[in-house]
Amino acid sequence: MSALRARLCSAAQVLGLLCWLLLGGCAAPSRPVYRIGFSQCTNGDAWRLAMLAGMQKELSFYPQVSFRMKDARDNSALQQQHIQEFLKEGIDLLIVSANEAGPVTPIVEEVYNRGIPVVILDRRTTSQLYTAYVGGNNREVGQTAGNYASSLLHQNGNVLEILGTAGSSPAVDRHLGFVQALAAYPNLHLAATVQTDWERPSVLRQLPAVLRAHPEVDLIFAHNDRMALGAYQVCHQLGLSQRVRVMGVDGLPGALGGLQLVQDKILAATLLYSPGGDEAIRTAMKILLKQPFSKENTLGTMVIDSTNVLTTKMQTEKLASQQQDIERQQRLLQAQTALYTSQRMALYVMALALLGAIASGVVIWRALRHNRLITGKLTSQNQEISSQRNQLQALAEQARVETEAKLRFFTNFSHELRTPLTLIMGPVEELLTNGADLSAGQRHDLNLMRRNTQRLLQLVNQLLDFRKIDVGKMPVRATEGNLVAFVREIMDVFEKPARQRGIRLRFLPAEPTITLWFDINILDKVLFNLLSNALKFTPEHGQITVSIQLVSAEQRVRISVEDTGRGISLHDQTHIFEWFYQGQQGASNGSGMGLALALGLTRLHLGELTFTSLPGQGSTFVVTLPTVLPAALHSTAAVLPTAALALAEEIEDLPIDSADTLGALGSPENEALVLVIEDNPEVNAFLVQKLRTHFRVQTAADGVVGLRLATELIPDLIVCDVMLPEVSGLQVVARLKGDWRTSHIPVVLLTARHAPEQQVEGVQAGADLYLTKPFNPTFLLENLRTLLHNRERQREHFRRELSVDTATVAPLRVDQKFLSDLLAIVEANLDNSSLSVEDVAARLGISRVQLYRKVKAVLGTSVTDFIQGIRLTKARQQLLDTELTIAEVGYRLGFASPSYFSASFRAKYHISPSEFRALHTTPNA
Predict the structure, then answer these.
(1) Where in the numbering of this chain does the Histidine kinase domain appear (predicted)?
(2) What is the Cα 706 distance to its own chain's centre?
(3) Shortest CA distance to 285 belongs to which of 55, 40, 41, 42?
(4) 812-921, what's its fold?
């Protein structure tokens, strides 16, 4: 029997080698098939046909790609339908050239959010949710046209501009660039503009009347060559073709293309605007093949006139000829491949027949052997499954008990915070109400205590709201009411503080009355947080605009809050809705809960909270609510708003007098001069009030002004906050100590950052004293006096002891070794829920502080966040294995309970593990 088995195995091996030589060795390696869908706004003009031709040319190099184009024929609704059809058919990548940016943006965002790459071609959408953009810089096209027009007219004359469809991004950007270029030439005037639909017939209809009204026109700039040809025909009819020169855009080859029109002297010039079809396919293939690519792929432009049109035309014709040769060679190759395939088919059939005969015998023998092994394993597996089931039940019960204990502790702790805060606020309110003999300084301090106690209460309330949303215990109690009147009442609370800072507060409802069902409590907190943020980040004399728009077709209503503040950086935009996120350098001076709470409450109300922002120009937050809520969410009981009413007094009490005004009330001129650098107006005013009776005081609200005043005034002492916008307190200290003019000035740093390593960081930067908030005013005053008395004696000592260079990141290869060891330790302990920072530091042979600094310097994150990120990344991979339950994935990755795993996963990816699994394991339709 054993000899027979050996012979069978030997025969199978020989046959397998033969089949590999015949089939595997000869057959071409299989390549994946990619499906690309192209949603074109229109394919009815030569430029769009050139775009498609460029795509087909580039696709000839990728036979493994299935490409399909759908023509929307300038119809946005039809284009939305086409993209929906692509989603149902199943595509790997979508290329979109939008007919209109606004209507197409939502469906493009939906495709992107499903994880399908999106390449925007030529015309942009209004969103940043896309994978890559390919197209020309239309503003640069307009600027180039304006500069060339100035050279043609010798910077003196009158120009007429023919624009494309109103609202389309190419027309808008080309016009802006053209006007911007003309502005540099005072004697060059834009006499008139003509709005068309990109086609020549509309130019033939509208242009004659405009030229008769403006006979002084010397040059016409049309946004494409088709309209430029129409402009030339009109000028020829009116007898102006010899005097008025015409420019176009596109520079396509062909009988009616821009190159031929320039060569025939019909056009004075055309600007090359590449269709970008070939570049779009190249970018798409880089994305699908996981190769490096650029998100923004801007195509260049150039002026084609009589000096270079022949050269450009010859190059274009040469490229077309080469493309024809390539296509002919590909057809020959395909024919040879087909012949080769047909000739080897007979050999394959014979080899497969022989393989089948021997394989049948091998399969029968292996089946008998496999059955015996399976019978033995089934018994042991059944026993193991029973044991694991019992363990899972015990762990689930333990997790349930632990979760309930955590929630109980969190709720009780929050309520315990409310009790002492209330006991603080009560006596303060009583003193403010009945304390008639209080001095101005005492009343100022009590008002400061009251405002900050109210803020602490609001933070506690937000924490409680967060927990209610997290555990699903915050119900929606909607009542029917007038949304316009409700929003106007909330805005009234912000009227006074906005007026005090010179900020214009505008309310623009589309209709005087909008009646719908909504929860007053929830919507009050959402709008209050959005308006508070807008007021906080809008500079003096800025503007905040609140608008309400009813979208009946979608049964939705949109409330937008737009400000003219500093905007949100690109880095912060990806984290803006995360709990406790305060932005880069913590410059927001907030708790980091407001926007996260607003998002949670909006979703609880079955709505959406979105935003757009341009750094340096402002931000717009949009709350979208359904006009129809389920009957289960309706309530007949009257509900009063809480957030705005509870915090109205806090906003009304905001100080309107600047710290500079307080600083002017100084003591006699012979006292020492102290410069206070603090961006919080209340803390600034508090410091001035405590110091002005002993010193002359000058203030600055940020580090830039503080550095300027320090070099101008040369104060005797500087008190500076660490967390400052633009230039931090540590940078202020470093620059002061590095400048010989100010190196002798003692600097006191004030901060809420009280960790030991943070205090060391402040001292190493060169500070003479580091005090944490809250601080004792008397202690601060005595320290300032001591520093002034010992300034000359201590200056050289501190410079010698504290002049330490800032640590820099080690060379990359050293960091790679460190990160490799760190990653190995974390991955080896993924299932260890008790893995701590101290454990990792001990395994690496360094201290906890050293580990924290190293990870922070190399990765820009904490050790805990790094470990959590590795676990959650592994979780995404293991969730794709449907044989594992979600609870099993959580335990395997070191999460103490399934609920903690789900909460952590949702906090990072804004989606639950179950939703993620359903989204990524459902087969394509």
Answers:
(1) 412-629
(2) 33
(3) 55
(4) Arc Repressor Mutant, subunit A (1.10.10)
Q: Under CATH, to which class is 659-802 assigned? A: alpha beta
- Count of CA atoms in the C-beta half-sphere (13 A) of 849: 7
In 3D space, the residue among 462, 453, 623 whose CA is nearest the CA of residue 530 turns out to be: 623
Which residue has tokens 């021997």? 358
What pLDDT does residue 549 have?
93
Task: Name the 3-class secondary structure at 85.
Answer: helix
- Nearest in space to 686 (alpha carbons), one of 649, 714, 657, 725: 657
> What per-residue confidence (pLDDT) applies to 810?
38
Start-to-end CA span in the chain (Å): 52
* Rounded Cα distance, 534 and 389, in Å: 54
**Contact, 274 vs 247, CB < 8 A?**
no
At 170 the three-state DSSP class reads helix
Helix crossing, 837-844 with 812-828: angle to 10°? 120
SS3 at position 700: strand
Overall residue count recorded for the chain in this entry: 925
Domains 34-135 and 659-802 share a fold: yes
Query: CATH: 3.40.50.2300, 2.40.50.460, 3.40.50.800, 3.30.565.10. Which one for 34-135?
Result: 3.40.50.2300
| % of the chain surpassing 90 pLDDT | 27
| Contact between residue 219 and residue 244 where contact means Cβ atoms under 8 Å apart | yes
Residue-range domain boundaries for the chain = 34-135, 136-278+298-310, 475-652, 659-802, 812-921
> Model confidence over 855-891: pLDDT tens digits?
664 565 677 888 888 888 888 888 888 888 888 888 8
> Do residues 651 and 496 lie in contact, with contact meaning Cβ atoms separated by under 8 Å?
yes
DSSP, res 30:
P
303-305/269-272 β-pairing: antiparallel
Q: What residue has token string 């932005």?
A: 583
Read out DSSP for 731-766?
HHHHHHHHSTTTTTS-EEEEES---HHHHHHHHHTT
Architecture of domain 475-652: 2-Layer Sandwich (3.30)
Structure tokens at 425: 């606020």
Nearest Cα to 575, choosing from 558, 566, 588?
Answer: 588
The whole-model pTM stands at: 0.36
Coil/strand/helix, residue 86: helix
Q: In sequence order, what are the residues at sequence separation of 6 or more whose Cβ sits closer than 8 angstroms to the Cβ of residue 290? A: none
What pLDDT, in 10s, does the model give residues 235-294? 999 999 889 999 999 888 888 888 899 999 999 999 988 888 989 999 999 999 999 999
CA distances to 11, 349, 357, 554 from 16, in Å: 8, 15, 12, 63
What per-residue confidence (pLDDT) applies to 326?
Answer: 73
- Is the backbone peptide bond immediately before 913 cis, with ω within 30 degrees of 0? no
Beta carbons of 482 and 515 less than 8 angstroms apart? yes
Low-confidence residues of the chain, pLDDT below 50? 1-4, 6-8, 11, 14, 21-30, 585-587, 638, 640-670, 740, 794-814, 857, 924-925
- Measuring CA to CA, which residue among 806, 805, 811 is closest to residue 858? 811
* CA distance linking residue 611 with residue 537, whole number of Å: 15
**Residue 633 carries which DSSP code?**
G
Determine the pLDDT at residue 107.
Answer: 93
